[in-house]
Amino acid sequence: MAVEMLQDWCRWMGVSSRGGLLILGILEDCSEAEFQGALQAALWPMGHFTVLGKVFREEDNATAALVELDQEVNYALVPREILGTGGTWNVVFVPSCSSEALLDRVFHFLEQQGETVDSVPGDPGLELDRVCRLQSV
């Protein structure tokens, strides 16, 4: 649901959701200076960003913020949480690919290696096999 909120908000603002982050759980008593400081500390490795807007969400009793990065999200650098005023804020981003696309990549890699899902030892092979069977049903 949070990813859908991010996508909808980005669409409404006319920006790409691939370069956007949704920050959830910002308490009302967090000042603008504290907010900006926490974002700077957490997001500096990702480069320049702009806060496009904030909105209070009654269901969370907290504020959500839409942040646009100057470049596409580098998923390795995205923090899952930001330590802010009153606790941690959750960071939401659009996943880089769907589960189907991920499975296609895994199968392609295994095929290039001359392997199959069944030949991969340990839990990853079993989990992929289960996922494949579920998708085929």
UniProtKB/TrEMBL annotation:
<dbReference type="InterPro" id="IPR048271">
    <property type="entry name" value="PNMA_N"/>
</dbReference>
<comment type="similarity">
    <text>Belongs to the PNMA family.</text>
</comment>
<dbReference type="InterPro" id="IPR026523">
    <property type="entry name" value="PNMA"/>
</dbReference>
<dbReference type="Pfam" id="PF20846">
    <property type="entry name" value="PNMA_N"/>
</dbReference>
<protein>
    <submittedName>
        <fullName>Paraneoplastic antigen-like protein 6B</fullName>
    </submittedName>
</protein>
<feature type="domain" description="Paraneoplastic antigen Ma-like N-terminal">
    <location>
        <begin position="1"/>
        <end position="92"/>
    </location>
</feature>
